[in-house]
């Protein structure tokens, strides 16, 4: 086999592994009602990667990071085609090998670690069968040998019970564990290069830090080279030797990690690097509450699975309460209890001094109107067949009976408030960007003139700069309309920017609650400290320090 | 003793056993409900059983005697439970037209129908599923379009037309096989297979398209999943990706459509049986409907319902077992 020598990979050897020259990638898109047209996703990007090195690819969504990463395997998602340039791996242009040559390379020379391991594993097969599959397919190892290698990798990646975890099915292990198994799967073929595509983005911060450390160790122990794709500069700063900043499919800046985060040369890099801090002065607690949750206990499965235990929080008019915690801590369940979707078993909920009926169906129109909600996924929270005007106009008709011109004027007013303007009135959700969609959802909530809006992870699916814009907008609207927010998030940076008071939730309980300044000032309880210390900081060597100083294991393991 | 009850408890608490037990219980209830419907339906029909047995010239006294003898003067629910009790002990009653025991004359017919259905299924199910897999492998290409074209043509032609086409070409022109599917007791296996070859082929044409199209759709649906991309990025061959990664996750919908078509092969073969003069259940039913032979219609109706419900329960259970989340709980 021609590639045999290249498989002898040694960390000290050096030399170029991957050389991408003038890469151009295009896709054919089919806009509804228009003729199909070609768009350029990656435009004239070149990069080289030395053996055993890690190159971070960073940028916002649509920057072409994943597309470039996958091009190193000659793979294009959907209708994506590599239309120009060369991809030279181990000294040969892989695009000239044809589909059979590419198939030989995938899973043996280059392996891929996907963002959501939960979706990337086949639910029908045991983990071990999937981990060794590529080895067996390419004949690089016999089954027994491959399994031995896999168990060693499970051990290296810190998975519990490494001998037996391979016998499990994907649904039987946690998300953080699955992401490590996926890394083991990539390493099992002993590739020269691994493409990590946002491997920790879908994880909780406290889990992310463990997985990140495991990936970093595995990379340095095996000496594999990696393309590490992420939108989070603080994360990539922990693992990458060099960083490449991309925007709209073009190269913005490329340098070693220290230079990019300390001395960025381009303005765009600077914007990414600078902490998106919003100075938000904490407001003093009011006298009367807009929402008072008292000793609420709620459960699923007919009282069997307790998901909220004795939760009490207050929200004051025109203020923001942030609820933070990991997935499964009961944040969203609290929202479901307040909105009446999951009637509490015990405790009471008061709205503006009056008790709120437990069930959604028992609430009257005015009680519904005063409590609105904004969701994480703006695009699934809107009917794709309705225009922006219809979407925002609906609560105006439903709650206030506005019709015709009166309604249209109010819609235009709301569109101005969310800084979009009435030009968008006839657009469909599919024609909007992620940030614009979320703005429309905000306008829809605002149209009801509510006293309280529940914001459930509203910025989590957005790029940092766009998310920042949404947060600023929410704060401005709060100042104008005196609306209160219950802000559910797992992101502590967001909390600092927007909250007046904070409730930290852990396994269905509020473990820390009070004004922002108080909650974020030591001494901390163990869980709050874990949460705070797990937020990646843009500093080389942060990861090692954070791991060393932890007092408590994350719940995701 | 204690150990056994512990095992029993463990089995009952496992979600999969519970689900399957639920499905079976539901099936039995459904079957009972159907039996009530069949009974009530045949009671509503105009006409008097005693009258139809004795004919128009019977004296009122003779009619009254016979009614008393048959228990027709009892309230409806008593008659229903008597009928149901008979069915459960294998006594389906007596045919009015021939005075023969229904169970014994039905037995051979049912066997013939199941024999034909079995071989039609052996022919059509693997063919349809394989063609579905091949269609996905070459999706939107010539092969896919050709398979879909043949399938749609065969399903849009009525089954009697397909039957006559087969008789015309294979039996009359080529003289390979007989055009009439006569079978009798003690017939050699090879001869029996020859006799049912044409009806089995005709049935295959009828059920092929539905199963093939559903297999194709179910697998294409799974092909959108992220784990298919993982398999592609492992460098697996396309047919392996479909076989190993897509098919196992499409099994529940495929089994559903297969069972539906199996049920059709048993219950819906009337036309094909009549064309090929095959002595199965369908012909038996048609004969006795035209003679207004209520007990036979009831018995056949109940057997058809049992086949339908039974196969659907099997599909449900297979779907449950195919789900790894239920098979291997956390």
Can you describe what's shown?
The complex is a heterodimer of chains A (557) and B (330). Chain A is an alpha/beta fold and 557 residues long. Chain A has 2 domains: 31-273, Rossmann fold (3-Layer(aba) Sandwich), CATH 3.40.50.300; 291-537, P-loop containing nucleotide triphosphate hydrolases (Rossmann fold, 3-Layer(aba) Sandwich). Chain A is 35% helix and 24% strand. Chain A has 21 helices and 20 strands. Chain A has a 6-stranded mixed sheet with strand order 6-7-8-3-9-10, sandwiched between helices. With 330 residues, chain B is mostly helical. Chain B folds into 2 domains: 2-88, no CATH class; 109-327, MetI-like fold. Helix content of chain B is 77%, strand content 0%. Chain B contains 16 helices and no strands. In chain B, helix 6 (102-137) runs antiparallel to helix 12 and helix 14 runs antiparallel to helix 15. The A-B interface holds A 70, 73, 75, 77, 102-108, 111-112, 114, 116, 119-125, 130, 133-134, 137-138, 168-169, 171-172 and B 225-227, 229-237, 240, 244-245, 248-249, 324-325, 328, 330. Chain A: Keywords: ATP-binding, Nucleotide-binding, Transport. Chain A: This is Peptide/nickel transport system ATP-binding protein. Chain A: It comes from Neomesorhizobium albiziae. Chain A: One of its GO terms (molecular function) is ATP hydrolysis activity. Chain A: InterPro entries: AAA+_ATPase, ABC_transp_ATP-bind, ABC_transporter-like_ATP-bd, ABC_transporter-like_CS, Oligopep_ABC_C, P-loop_NTPase.
């Amino acid at each position: 086999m021609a590639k045999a020598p290249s498989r002898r990979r040694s960390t000290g050897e050096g030399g170029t592994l991957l050389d991408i020259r003038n890469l151009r990638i295009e896709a054919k898109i089919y806009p509804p009602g228009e003729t199909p047209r070609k768009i350029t996703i990656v435009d004239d990007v070149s990069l080289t990667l030395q053996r055993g090195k890690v190159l971070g690819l960073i940028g916002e969504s649509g920057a072409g990071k994943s597309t470039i990463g996958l091009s190193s395997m000659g793979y294009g998602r959907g209708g994506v085609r590599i239309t120009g340039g060369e991809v030279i791996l181990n000294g040969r242009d892989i695009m000239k090998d044809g589909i059979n040559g590419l198939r030989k390379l995938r899973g043996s020379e280059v392996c891929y670690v996907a963002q959501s391991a939960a979706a990337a594993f086949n639910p029908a097969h045991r983990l071990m069968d999937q981990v060794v599959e590529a080895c067996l397919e390419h004949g690089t190892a016999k089954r027994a040998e491959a399994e031995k290698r896999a168990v060693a990798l499970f051990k290296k990646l810190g998975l519990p019970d490494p001998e037996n975890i391979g016998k499990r099915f994907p649904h039987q292990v946690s998300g953080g564990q699955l992401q490590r198994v996926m890394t083991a799967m990539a390493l099992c073929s002993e590739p020269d290069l691994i493409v990590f595509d946002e491997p920790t983005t879908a994880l909780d911060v406290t889990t992310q830090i463990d997985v990140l450390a495991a990936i970093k160790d595995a990379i340095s122990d095996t000496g594999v080279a990696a393309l590490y794709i992420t939108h989070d500069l603080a994360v990539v700063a922990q693992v990458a030797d060099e960083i490449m900043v991309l925007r709209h499919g073009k190269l913005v800046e490329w340098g070693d990690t220290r230079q990019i985060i300390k001395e960025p040369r381009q303005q765009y890099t600077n914007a990414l690097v600078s902490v998106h801090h919003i100075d938000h002065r904490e407001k003093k607690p009011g006298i009367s509450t807009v929402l008072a949750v008292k000793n609420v206990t709620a459960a699923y499965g007919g009282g069997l699975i307790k998901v909220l235990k004795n939760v009490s929080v207050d929200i004051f008019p025109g203020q923001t309460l942030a609820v933070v915690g990991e997935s499964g801590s009961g944040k969203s369940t609290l929202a479901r209890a307040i909105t009446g979707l999951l009637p509490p078993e015990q405790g009471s909920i008061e709205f503006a001094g009056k008790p709120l009926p437990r069930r959604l169906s028992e609430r009257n129109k005015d009680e519904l109107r005063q409590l609105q909600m904004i969701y994480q996924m703006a695009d699934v929270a809107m009917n794709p067949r309705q225009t922006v005007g219809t979407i925002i106009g609906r609560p105006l008709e439903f709650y206030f009976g506005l019709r015709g011109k009166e309604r249209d004027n109010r819609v235009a007013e709301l569109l101005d408030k969310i800084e979009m303007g009435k030009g968008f009135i006839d657009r469909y959700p599919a024609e909007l960007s992620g940030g614009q969609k979320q703005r429309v959802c905000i306008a829809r909530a605002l149209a009801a003139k509510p006293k309280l809006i529940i914001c459930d992870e509203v910025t989590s699916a957005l790029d940092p700069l766009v998310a920042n814009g949404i947060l600023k907008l929410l704060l401005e609207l709060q100042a104008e309309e005196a609306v209160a927010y219950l802000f559910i998030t797992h992101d502590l940076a967001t909390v600092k920017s927007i909250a007046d008071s904070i409730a930290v939730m852990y396994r269905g309980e509020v473990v820390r609650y009070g004004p922002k300044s108080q909650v974020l000032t030591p001494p901390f309880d163990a869980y709050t400290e874990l949460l705070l210390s797990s937020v990646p900081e843009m500093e080389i060597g942060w990861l090692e320090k954070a791991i060393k100083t932890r007092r408590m294991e994350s719940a995701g393991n | 003793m204690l150990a056994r009850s512990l095992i029993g408890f463990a089995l009952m608490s496992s979600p999969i056993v519970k689900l399957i037990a639920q499905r079976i219980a539901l099936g039995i209830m459904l079957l009972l409900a159907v039996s009530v419907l069949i009974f009530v339906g045949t009671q509503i029909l105009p006409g008097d059983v005693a009258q139809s047995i004795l004919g128009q010239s019977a004296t009122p006294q003779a009619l009254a005697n016979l009614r008393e003898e048959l228990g027709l003067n009892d309230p409806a629910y008593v008659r229903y439970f008597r009928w149901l009790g008979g069915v459960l002990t294998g006594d389906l009653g007596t045919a009015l037209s021939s005075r023969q025991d229904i169970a014994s004359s039905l037995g051979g017919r049912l066997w013939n129908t199941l024999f034909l259905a079995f071989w039609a299924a052996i022919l059509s199910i693997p063919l349809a599923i394989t063609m579905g897999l091949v269609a996905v492998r070459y999706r939107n290409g010539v092969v896919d379009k050709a398979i879909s074209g043949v399938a749609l043509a065969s399903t849009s032609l009525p089954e009697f037309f397909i039957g006559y086409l087969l008789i015309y070409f294979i039996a009359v022109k080529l003289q390979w096989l007989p055009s009439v599917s006569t079978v009798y007791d003690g017939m050699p296996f090879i001869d029996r297979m020859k006799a049912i070859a044409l009806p089995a082929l005709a049935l295959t044409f009828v059920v092929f398209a539905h199963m093939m199209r559903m297999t194709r759709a179910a697998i294409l649906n799974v092909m959108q999943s992220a784990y298919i991309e993982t398999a592609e990025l492992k460098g697996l061959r396309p047919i392996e990706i479909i076989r190993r990664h897509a098919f196992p996750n499409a099994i529940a919908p495929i089994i559903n459509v297969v069972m539906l078509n199996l049920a059709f092969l048993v219950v819906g073969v009337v036309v094909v049986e009549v064309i090929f003069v095959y002595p199965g259940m369908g012909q038996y039913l048609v004969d006795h409907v035209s003679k207004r032979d209520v007990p036979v219609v009831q018995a056949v109706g109940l057997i058809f319902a049992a086949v339908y419900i039974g196969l659907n329960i099997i599909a449900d259970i297979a779907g449950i077992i195919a789900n790894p989340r239920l098979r291997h709980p956390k």
